[in-house]
Design goal:
There is one protein chain. This protein is of the alpha+beta class. The chain is 59% helix and 13% strand. It has six helices and three strands; from the N terminus they run ααβααββαα. The chain has a three-stranded antiparallel sheet with strand order 1-3-2. Helix 1 runs antiparallel to helix 4, helix 2 crosses helix 4 and helix 3 packs across helix 4. The protein is elongated and about 50 Å long.
Length: 110
Amino acid sequence: MDKNDALSAFGALSQSTRLDVFRLLVKAGEKGMLAGEVSGSLGVRQNTMSSNLSILSQSGLTRNEREGRNIRYFVDTNGLNGLLVFLLEDCCGGQPELCGTLINEIACAG
Protein backbone atom coordinates (compact mmCIF):
# COMPACT_ATOMS: atom_id res chain seq x y z
CA MET A 1 0.00 0.00 0.00
CA ASP A 2 1.29 3.43 -0.85
CA LYS A 3 0.71 6.72 0.93
CA ASN A 4 -2.24 7.75 -1.28
CA ASP A 5 -4.01 4.42 -0.68
CA ALA A 6 -3.45 4.80 3.06
CA LEU A 7 -4.86 8.33 2.98
CA SER A 8 -7.94 7.04 1.14
CA ALA A 9 -8.44 4.36 3.80
CA PHE A 10 -7.99 6.88 6.63
CA GLY A 11 -10.43 9.23 4.91
CA ALA A 12 -13.01 6.46 4.70
CA LEU A 13 -12.56 5.58 8.37
CA SER A 14 -12.59 9.19 9.56
CA GLN A 15 -16.40 9.34 9.56
CA SER A 16 -18.21 7.85 12.57
CA THR A 17 -20.75 5.68 10.74
CA ARG A 18 -18.16 4.25 8.35
CA LEU A 19 -15.86 3.42 11.25
CA ASP A 20 -18.78 1.64 12.97
CA VAL A 21 -19.55 -0.25 9.74
CA PHE A 22 -15.94 -1.31 9.32
CA ARG A 23 -15.70 -2.56 12.91
CA LEU A 24 -19.01 -4.41 12.54
CA LEU A 25 -17.76 -6.13 9.38
CA VAL A 26 -14.50 -7.05 11.13
CA LYS A 27 -16.60 -8.76 13.82
CA ALA A 28 -18.74 -10.51 11.18
CA GLY A 29 -15.63 -12.20 9.81
CA GLU A 30 -15.76 -14.48 6.78
CA LYS A 31 -19.58 -14.65 6.66
CA GLY A 32 -19.87 -10.90 6.15
CA MET A 33 -23.23 -9.14 6.38
CA LEU A 34 -26.00 -8.18 4.00
CA ALA A 35 -26.34 -4.45 3.45
CA GLY A 36 -29.75 -4.45 5.16
CA GLU A 37 -28.29 -6.24 8.18
CA VAL A 38 -25.59 -3.60 8.48
CA SER A 39 -28.19 -0.82 8.25
CA GLY A 40 -30.43 -2.48 10.82
CA SER A 41 -27.60 -3.22 13.23
CA LEU A 42 -26.46 0.39 13.25
CA GLY A 43 -29.87 2.07 12.88
CA VAL A 44 -28.88 3.89 9.70
CA ARG A 45 -31.22 4.45 6.72
CA GLN A 46 -30.43 2.16 3.80
CA ASN A 47 -29.73 4.94 1.29
CA THR A 48 -27.27 6.56 3.71
CA MET A 49 -25.69 3.17 4.42
CA SER A 50 -25.32 2.48 0.71
CA SER A 51 -23.23 5.62 0.31
CA ASN A 52 -21.04 4.73 3.30
CA LEU A 53 -20.53 1.16 2.07
CA SER A 54 -19.55 2.48 -1.34
CA ILE A 55 -16.90 4.78 0.15
CA LEU A 56 -15.45 1.91 2.19
CA SER A 57 -15.33 -0.30 -0.91
CA GLN A 58 -13.65 2.41 -2.99
CA SER A 59 -11.00 2.80 -0.29
CA GLY A 60 -10.13 -0.90 -0.55
CA LEU A 61 -11.20 -1.71 3.01
CA THR A 62 -14.32 -3.70 2.11
CA ARG A 63 -15.53 -5.85 -0.75
CA ASN A 64 -18.95 -7.14 -1.70
CA GLU A 65 -20.67 -10.04 -3.42
CA ARG A 66 -24.10 -10.01 -4.98
CA GLU A 67 -26.53 -12.63 -3.69
CA GLY A 68 -29.57 -12.37 -5.91
CA ARG A 69 -31.15 -9.02 -5.08
CA ASN A 70 -28.96 -8.54 -2.01
CA ILE A 71 -25.35 -7.50 -1.54
CA ARG A 72 -23.17 -9.05 1.14
CA TYR A 73 -20.27 -6.97 2.47
CA PHE A 74 -16.99 -8.21 3.92
CA VAL A 75 -13.81 -6.64 5.23
CA ASP A 76 -11.20 -6.82 2.48
CA THR A 77 -8.41 -8.50 4.41
CA ASN A 78 -5.87 -7.54 1.75
CA GLY A 79 -6.76 -3.88 2.22
CA LEU A 80 -6.68 -4.15 6.01
CA ASN A 81 -3.36 -6.00 5.94
CA GLY A 82 -1.93 -3.42 3.57
CA LEU A 83 -2.97 -0.58 5.86
CA LEU A 84 -1.50 -2.26 8.94
CA VAL A 85 1.77 -3.00 7.13
CA PHE A 86 1.93 0.60 5.92
CA LEU A 87 1.50 1.85 9.50
CA LEU A 88 3.92 -0.58 11.08
CA GLU A 89 6.56 -1.20 8.40
CA ASP A 90 9.18 0.84 10.24
CA CYS A 91 7.96 -0.08 13.71
CA CYS A 92 10.38 0.16 16.60
CA GLY A 93 13.28 1.61 14.63
CA GLY A 94 14.16 -1.63 12.90
CA GLN A 95 13.88 -3.72 16.05
CA PRO A 96 10.81 -5.87 15.34
CA GLU A 97 11.15 -7.75 18.64
CA LEU A 98 10.05 -4.53 20.38
CA CYS A 99 6.71 -4.71 18.53
CA GLY A 100 5.84 -8.10 20.01
CA THR A 101 3.35 -6.66 22.52
CA LEU A 102 1.55 -4.69 19.84
CA ILE A 103 1.38 -7.68 17.49
CA ASN A 104 0.09 -9.91 20.29
CA GLU A 105 -2.61 -7.39 21.17
CA ILE A 106 -3.77 -7.20 17.56
CA ALA A 107 -3.75 -10.99 17.19
CA CYS A 108 -5.59 -11.57 20.46
CA ALA A 109 -8.05 -8.65 20.29
CA GLY A 110 -11.52 -9.64 21.19
